[in-house]
Amino acid sequence: MSLDHTTEGFRFDRDTRVDKRADGEFTATLTDAWNTFTTHPNGGYVLGAALNALRQGLNQPDPLAVSVFFLRPAAPGEATVRTEVVREGRRTATGQALMEQGGKEIVRATATYGDLTPDPKARVLTLEEPPRLPSPEDCFVPPEFDRPEGLGIAHSVEYRYPRRPAWLEGRKDGRPHAEFWMRFADGREPDTHSLASMVDFAPPAVLEIGEFATITVELSVHVRARPAPGWLACRVFTKHVSGGMHEEDMEIWDGTGTLVAQCRQLAMLL
Amino acid sequence: MSLDHTTEGFRFDRDTRVDKRADGEFTATLTDAWNTFTTHPNGGYVLGAALNALRQGLNQPDPLAVSVFFLRPAAPGEATVRTEVVREGRRTATGQALMEQGGKEIVRATATYGDLTPDPKARVLTLEEPPRLPSPEDCFVPPEFDRPEGLGIAHSVEYRYPRRPAWLEGRKDGRPHAEFWMRFADGREPDTHSLASMVDFAPPAVLEIGEFATITVELSVHVRARPAPGWLACRVFTKHVSGGMHEEDMEIWDGTGTLVAQCRQLAMLL
């Protein structure tokens, strides 16, 4: 399967590009354009490169379920991706991708792909509301995200908040729950492939309870529909902190009010 | 790591027992005592055997995050489990287990283990209520679950509902949400190892919207604490059905009101 031509010129696709070296072996070059607070590349971005290799060998177009274990921090620079087709069935195809840097495995992702072509006959039941947000034009752009020397990811992704997050002012509002708009800064439209990465692009909800040092152990994402073009409405929240761990849920809804991706990660407080 | 001696005589532990054949290779014998409606062994039970092999090679006691992809239906009978230690660090250990039957891979599970020894200094934040249930003695025992010829799993696991589920009467109440008590029928107490299986023991929430044929693609469980002995309070729910798929969330709380496990699966309607 070749890359979708409409996405070829965009940063996300350039920065997750993989070159095939042999069957099931690819080279990627991670950039610093997706670095977070931690000064490491965002995990969702790293996953994007791994899935870019994996999907080339699978006979289904859309990631349905992806689980990724983060084993060591990624660094900008060259990486090797090793892929395996685990099973191809009639409705789904499952594979696994390992990413290595410096000879060490840093990421292990398993994924089942399928076909999310809209089916007007399929049953739809939605027992939850999309985030209720003012239009993106009426929302707040965190100026910290515009600093030239700022976070890499804040130049690659645009965020719009209904009000200024307390953690940006050195306060904490005590509620680990945020809703905001998100899109790629260069106009790349979302698709099911990029959603599997974008579920990890939110500033952590636990910033609002004063927890700044958290690393993800595992992230599972379910992609539920092909997104409409335009801004994505996001909801990120944590309900349970205990034993030095917390979960973080992320939902992404498209502009038509359709849930397009659900994600949960387990993270460790440092 | 040897099996906990207090669990050795119980059915769950007998039926998930594995015998080591070589480094990273084990034999299991799946029984029909955990069969569901589908007449296949419950996926959580199958996962239990895979984790029983995997945990023997890891230097941490408690599963923190487990993701399992169900590739083909399991059948009662012999199975091979192949395990791999992916990474052992200071706080966590990650491994992978593949289960095969008839030379075909049926289950691929990846897991990060850690140590959930209670830490009284750790921060605790709980922004959700446990299920509000009458005491188990005042709850309903589905008589269908007591038929001698009934579902295998209904003999191995005890369920107590606050009221009779509509789906048991051939009706549907339209709300895919249930709360109930659960425990092993033979008195085996829950622990973090068994929780990773028990999160899959709930009758599907979508039974209440008339969906009886659903198969799990992927299941992720986060074990959050070591459970107190006794009945477990469970909450199972689905919020989104679309494109022939639905997610199912399961929470397990122990009798002290502590969330001990969270699970989400992605399932496909047949």
UniProtKB/TrEMBL annotation, chains A, B:
Residues of the signal peptide: none
Record-annotated Acyl-CoA thioesterase-like N-terminal HotDog domain positions: 31-114
Membrane spanning stretches: none
Domain Acyl-CoA thioesterase-like C-terminal: 136-268
InterPro entries referenced in this protein's UniProt entry, alphabetically: ACOT8-like_C, Acyl-CoA_hotdog, HotDog_dom_sf, Sec_Metab_Biosynth-Assoc, TesB_ACOT8-like_N
Pfam families in alphabetical order: 4HBT_3 (PF13622), 4HBT_3C (PF20789)
Name of the protein this chain belongs to: Thioesterase
Phylogenetic classification of the source organism: Bacteria, Bacillati, Actinomycetota, Actinomycetes, Streptosporangiales
